[in-house]
């Protein structure tokens, strides 16, 4: 009973303080009053009083200045009469509200009641359900660990915003996992209904990638126009697959399509140029014909990834088949972090240098730098950054490596690095780049730039067939025009003559 009476007294005190503060403000001038009137002149008889029912304010510092609002006249004076110092506008409604709260707080402070007031305000500002959902969205969208809710730093940050929030936040990562599992079916159902109400067929993009722990994942994206004419591109599946074959992909893809109820609405399939994707399309065609009597043409509905096509063109531009095999071995060793036998590594370096010329030399030098953490740190300290290592499947990686080495600071650091290690057994003197080699690398870099530009031009989910055709035509014409300087690219001089 005593606590209830104390609470009632606090409420009466809060109400009294609010009323007193409010009356002290409303007794003064209106919060909407503007001080711009001090800079207005009286309207002359031949001048209109209003324009479209809006009162006209005339500037007293010039004959032509006028505006139909106090804000407009204030802007005029600040722009045309910069020597006039305008005072800040008198309080707006928001400012008046802040003044009211300040007055309430000062009155309660005098009565020693601010702690209850603070706690009441802080608690009322927290919407527990909204805060929890926003936290889950942050973790999912930004791919944060579930254990963020257990970090002391996270709790200190939340407490800095609102000390009362600590009692509202989840304290275990299991709570986040449970919440995501609870909301996922609901979110998935929204996606399902959106797909089923689509105005177009459901076009799929599929791709397999290998995780660092060697799991194969099949990513499945659906593209379509929804019932409100909005283009959608949604990830609907990321499942492990037992293998790369078309049959393996279909065994993973079919359950996803059935979950979303769009098996009979399949449009085109976008994938890279692997023959396994041809098998996948033939499997889809046979399944739809058998189960639903749908004539789905595997050839016509197969769209090849244009970025992958450009990468294949670059590989053909740079490598012969045996060279590409050597680069595949390098890539495999890099991913596995396994160092090959020194004899095998030396034979591989010699073969790459002999087959690729200046490109092979540069590749060997970059591999030498990256083979040791100490040498890598030493080079970065001198050059300011690493030289990216080429990769057979990483698009434009050769161009990025060449582009970086064209920077003067990187080039000087690389020359100094080679000078330091040239007398050791770790760098073969045959890998030292001559002035002619540097000129050739510069020429190749400029040639590869067009493929980099085309890749950027065709990336994204809004690329049209018109843009693809245009890009390929430009590259084709450029390759034909470049034939006149093919003697400059002696190891590469005939490789691009039959690319298209």
Protein architecture, described:
The protein is an alpha/beta fold. The protein has four domains: 2-120, no CATH class; 126-179, no CATH class; 201-304; 311-492, no CATH class. It is built from 18 helices and nine strands. It has helices at residues 2-26, 70-80, 93-110, 114-124, 128-141, 152-161, 173-196, 246-260, 275-292, 306-318, 321-336, 342-356, 358-370, 373-383, 397-405, 408-421, 435-458, 465-482; strands spanning 50-51, 54-55, 57-58, 66-67, 202-210, 216-225, 231-240, 266-271, 302-304. A five-stranded mixed sheet has the order 7-6-5-8-9. It has a two-stranded antiparallel ribbon with strand order 1-2. The chain has a two-stranded antiparallel sheet with strand order 3-4. Helix 8 packs across helix 9.
- Arithmetic mean of pLDDT: 80
Number of strands: 9
- Spatial sequence of strands, sheet with the most strands: 7-6-5-8-9
| Helical residues, percent | 55-70%
- Count of separate DSSP helical elements: 18
Secondary-structure element string: HEEEEHHHHHHEEEHEHEHHHHHHHHH
Largest sheet: 5 strands, mixed
- Bin the strand percentage: 5-15%
Give the count of structural domains: 4
Q: Which descriptor suits the 3D outline?
A: extended
What is the first-to-last residue Cα distance? Answer: 91 Å
Please compute the radius of gyration using only Cα atoms: 35 Å
Which stretches are low in confidence, meaning pLDDT under 50 for 5 or more residues running? 1-32, 486-500
């Amino acid at each position: 009973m005593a606590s209830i009476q104390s609470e009632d007294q606090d409420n009466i005190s809060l109400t009294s303080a609010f009323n007193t503060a409010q009356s002290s403000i409303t007794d003064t001038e209106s919060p909407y009053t503007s001080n711009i009137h001090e800079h207005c002149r009286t309207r002359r008889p031949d001048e209109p009083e209003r324009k479209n029912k809006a009162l006209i304010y005339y500037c007293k510092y010039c004959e032509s200045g006028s505006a139909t609002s106090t804000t407009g006249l204030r802007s005029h004076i600040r722009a045309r009469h910069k020597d006039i110092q305008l005072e800040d506008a008198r309080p707006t409604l928001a400012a008046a509200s802040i003044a009211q709260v300040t007055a309430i707080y000062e009155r309660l402070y005098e009565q020693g009641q601010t702690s209850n007031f603070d706690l009441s305000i802080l608690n009322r500002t927290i919407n527990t359900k909204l805060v929890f959902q926003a936290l889950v969205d942050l973790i999912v969208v930004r791919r944060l660990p579930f254990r963020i809710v257990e970090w002391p730093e996270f709790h200190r940050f939340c407490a800095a915003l609102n000390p009362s929030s600590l009692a509202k936040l989840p304290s275990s990562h299991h709570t986040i996992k449970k919440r995501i599992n609870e909301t996922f079916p609901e979110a998935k159902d929204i996606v399902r209904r959106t797909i089923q109400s689509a105005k177009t067929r459901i076009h799929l993009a599929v791709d397999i990638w290998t995780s660092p722990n060697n799991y194969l994942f099949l990513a499945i994206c659906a593209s379509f126009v929804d019932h409100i004419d909005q283009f959608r591109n949604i990830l609907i599946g990321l499942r492990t697959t037992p293998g790369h074959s078309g049959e393996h992909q279909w065994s993973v893809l079919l359950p996803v399509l059935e979950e979303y109820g769009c098996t009979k609405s399949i449009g085109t399939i976008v994938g890279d140029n692997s023959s396994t994707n041809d098998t996948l399309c033939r499997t889809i065609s046979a399944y739809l014909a058998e189960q639903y009597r749908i004539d789905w043409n595997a050839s016509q509905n197969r769209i090849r990834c244009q970025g992958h096509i450009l990468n294949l063109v670059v590989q053909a531009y740079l490598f012969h088949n045996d060279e590409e095999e050597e680069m595949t071995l390098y890539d495999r060793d890099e991913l596995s972090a396994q160092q090959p036998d020194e004899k095998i590594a030396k034979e591989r370096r010699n073969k790459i240098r002999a087959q690729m010329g200046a490109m092979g030399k540069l590749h060997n030098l970059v591999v030498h730098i990256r083979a040791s953490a100490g040498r890598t740190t030493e080079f970065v300290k001198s050059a300011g950054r690493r030289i990216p290592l080429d990769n057979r499947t990483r698009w434009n990686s050769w161009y990025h490596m060449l582009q970086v080495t064209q920077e003067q600071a990187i080039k000087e650091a690389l020359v100094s690095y080679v000078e330091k290690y040239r007398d050791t057994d770790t760098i073969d003197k045959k890998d030292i780049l001559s002035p002619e080699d540097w000129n050739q690398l510069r020429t190749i870099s400029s040639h590869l730039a067009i493929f980099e530009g085309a890749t950027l031009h065709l990336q994204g989910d809004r690329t049209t067939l018109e843009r693809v055709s245009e890009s390929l035509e430009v590259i084709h014409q450029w390759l034909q025009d470049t034939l006149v300087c093919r003697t400059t690219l002696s190891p590469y001089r005939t490789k691009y003559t039959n690319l298209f």
